[in-house]
Write a structure and sequence with these properties.
This protein is mainly beta and 140 residues long. It contains 2 helices and 8 strands, in the order αββββββαββ. The longest helix has 16 residues.
Amino acid sequence: MNYLIIFFTLLFINTQSNDTHTLTVTIDNIKTMEGTLEVALFNKSDRFMEEGQAYKSVSIKVENGSETFVFENLPKDVYAISLYHDENANGECDRNFFGIPKEPYAFSNNFKPKFSAPTFDDCQFELTADTSMEIELLKF
């Protein structure tokens, strides 16, 4: 009888672990081989692009014109990505007088803002399986 309990417990644990996914992101159009890419993954629309509110974040040293990284063990959910290329490695996205980024930036769905910052809805995607995406850096 104890073997059956152990078997079903292990089966339940295995089933639970299959509910996570991998998100592979390739960032293209990197012009300067200096600094870092600062990538933030959000899963809450009301906290989108707020500093320190990302669900997960990663900093990648830039060495190539295209960089790839992986977020692992993500639960099925709706996400959005915001990122910038910190070319001068000062730890912030430098902006001009009007608040527009002076360093390259990008968003999931390759959303291109026109007159204001994007919303979560502009950049959202549903993660239901292992997924790969390409995001191209923009510069104002």
